[in-house]
Amino acid sequence: MTTAGDIMHRGAQWIPAHETLDRAAQLMRELNVGALPISDQNERLCGILTDRDIVVGCVAMGHDPAKVTAGEMAQGTPRWIDAGADVGEVLREMQSHQIRRLPVIENKRLVGMISEADIARHLTQDQIASFAGRVYAETTAR
């Protein structure tokens, strides 16, 4: 059985909710990633921040990324998967919520992230096609 821990990208890091978006952008650059899980004061997942969130939700709105925090950008219920979960569970979670990145948690700690690239490297062509069809499907509720 292939697990989330087998396909994840190790070395994911939190951005604390109190950190500003300019710091988040710097961390994304340092780590060469486009998304960071947001943690609360207890290092619990409270959201995910993407580079697009920073540009569209802050800069394009005329806000100063040095004054807006990652926590202010956190929206909705964050999704995650246990490191021991089967790849089928990973796919179901990402497909059912139409998400492209999924934090991986083990013993209540962040241990990695699964992205579309991780899926493309580890799944069959049929699994990839099914995943893409469901994640990118247009939703009726907006």
Order of strands in the sheet with most strands: 1-7-6-5
- Please state the structural category: alpha/beta
Q: How many angstroms separate the termini?
A: 36 Å
SSE string: HEEHEEHHEHEEHH
Strand residue content: 15-25%
Helix content: 25-40%
Radius of gyration: 15 Å
Beta strands, count: 7
Secondary structure tally, helices: 7
**Broad shape:** globular
The major pleated sheet works out as: 4 strands, mixed
Average pLDDT over all residues:
89
Low-confidence residue ranges:
none
Which terms would index this structure?
about 140 residues; alpha/beta; 4-stranded mixed beta sheet; 7 strands
What does this structure look like?
This protein is α/β, with parallel strands linked by helices and 142 residues long. It is 38% helix and 21% strand. The protein has seven helices and seven strands; from the N terminus they run αββαββααβαββαα. It has helices at residues 4-7, 21-31, 51-57, 70-73, 87-96, 116-122, 125-135; strands at residues 9-10, 15-16, 35-39, 45-50, 81-82, 101-106, 109-115. Strands 1-7-6-5 form a four-stranded mixed β-sheet. It has a three-stranded mixed β-sheet with strand order 2-3-4. β2, α2 (21-31) and β3 (35-39) form a beta-alpha-beta unit. α5 packs parallel to α7 (125-135). The longest helix is centred in the first third of the chain and has 11 residues, at 21-31. The chain starts with a helix and ends in a 7-residue tail after the last helix. The model has no long low-confidence stretch (mean pLDDT 89).
